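Slide 14.
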Amino acid sequence: MDLLLERSLAQLNEITGLHVRPVPKRNSKDLTIHLLVGTRATTLHTTIVAAPTFEMLLARKTQHSLFVVPQASRELLTKASAEGINLLDASGNCTIRARGLILYVEGRPAIRRHPDTKAIRAAGWWCVLALLARPSLAEATIRDLAAAAGVSTQAAFDVQKRLSADGALIRSPNGYRWVPSQWRRYIDQWVGGYQAYVRPKLLLGRFRAQGELSDVEERVQTMLPAAAWRWGGESAARRLAPHVEPSAVVLHLQEDTARTHMARLRALPVQEGGNLLLLRFPRGRVALEGPRPDTVHPLLAYAEMLVGADERQREAAAELLDSFASSAAP
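Slide 15: predicted structure.
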């Protein structure tokens, strides 16, 4: 059993006195658990999330899901409770609603973690993206993996070690390979890591550009050099999935030319809203390997679409992910 899951369930047992019976899933670190409430058993399906965000949990929740996270803040617990999201952390903080059971615990201090369980930071998440986007990189050398992800060899080595210890990568004759069920689980982890660590470093700002979205996109295509930009988020998804209707133009731009290009696009900075979201160019080659030369990779666009997403945007993001995963899964 995964150490985080084991600790979290032990804390839940200790705090509530409930009988927690885990049932392992084949080829997965997740579990089905049975909580005995009186004489009735409630079944929940656990999903481990290393870097949780509310938007990602909301997009992935089901009636019988229980998300297990390293640490849940009071704000996250409050939002999860309001939306009926079952959530449990390693300290026993939780919000759980199931048949015959309502639990809410907050304020328990975080358990000190072993150094090997430290959070993956931004460079590491770029490496995770590269491994997800191009699964064959699991068999590559550390140097080649680092070059593809645009990170240091140390960051690539640390991620490979972390995913191997987590059971996501296993040894193969040529190096490593993905465990298929873990590949899909790590897409969820990537979304959380993107929102927590990657996106704050990418964000250049929001802008209000003159005209409709189609006018803004036309100016991008006609006024900016092709090598200087890529469509991201919903703008990329509209070109990769047939039913996506963007609420704003999302553009990855070379940072050193951003000010000049914003003047060409007749765009002014705004604190909130706007119709143009500007992000820095992503790291590495893989993040730019979209199905089209003018888009970023679908997994990068997918993660951006889930930032503050409403139901329509989550459905559009799911459509984009399905179109990618159907052909790319290891």
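Speaker note: The first strand starts at residue 19 and ends at 24.
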